[in-house]
Design goal:
9 strands; 11 helices; alpha+beta; about 20% strand; BirA Bifunctional Protein, domain 2
Length: about 325
Amino acid sequence: MKEQIVRVQDAALGQIAAAKCIKDLESARVAILGKNGALTQVQQGMRNVPKEDKPAVGSLLNAARCAISAALETRTRELQEQADRAAIANVDITLPGASLPPGGLHPISLVREEAVRILRRMGFTLADGPEIEDEWHCFDALNTPADHPARNEKDTFYFDSGKLLRTQTSTVQARVMEKQAPPVRIICPGSAFRRDAIDATHLSAFNQIEGLYVDRMVSVGDLKGTLEYFLKALFGDNTAVRFRPHFFPFTEPSFEIDVLLQATGQEPRWIEIAGCGMVNPAVFENIDCKSGKDFYQGCTGFAFGIGLERLAMIRWGIRDIRLLIENDVRFLAQFQ
């Protein structure tokens, strides 16, 4: 039995050393260690070995298996290294690598960064808040009545818990005012969600940048001057801007802002990009009541909310807002 183990081990080591490729080596492994392999057959003969000889024979059998396994691992590494060297033998490492096309920021990211830069130069600071909100911060704090259409499940994404996906980033303004005494001058860029039908000018998930300025003696003139400067800094001095009277429960008086869109191949048309107005005193009362502080007594302020997709459409003359979410590389490559 001992002589048989030695013969199998010697033959196996010679077979492993003679393997010329990984396929040959795998065939050798199966022939030696497989279910019907030579060493496996010898091992099955252990049942016929006398009891007193089993420790010595078993030790020799284990040593043979270890030696064969080690030889297989060593030969595998050697053959893999040979294959790797052969694969690159004809490669000229002095040739320049293949160039990859450069990436770039999405147009929404580009217009957001520029908008933030302009508003920060005007003294606004960045603020952020959660996208999953409660009704108080999304509606009640902003003087939105219980019967307002925005609170209907047909217009807003609600969770079973009663929380919702924020319908505007004004929720961040409410959270900041709860904690910060005036003056407050913030901008809140971020995502918002509404159950809007998707068409050429509307999305159900979109991006906004909202602003709030609260202090003593803030006027409609401050609001109009700030937004006209911002839009002309973004689009150019000749940009046509108009303010239309509107109604929002959280501002009074309120306005909608239109900018003239001049898309290539189309007639110029006015496109709504923002809502704005003077902060309704009821909002200040709600905030003070909730926070238990008298931060905003005697204050005035203005707020605005601008759709970043609309800014991108005007900036680059994009005719359909859906192009901004289709991720078509042919379209996005224009902005690199």
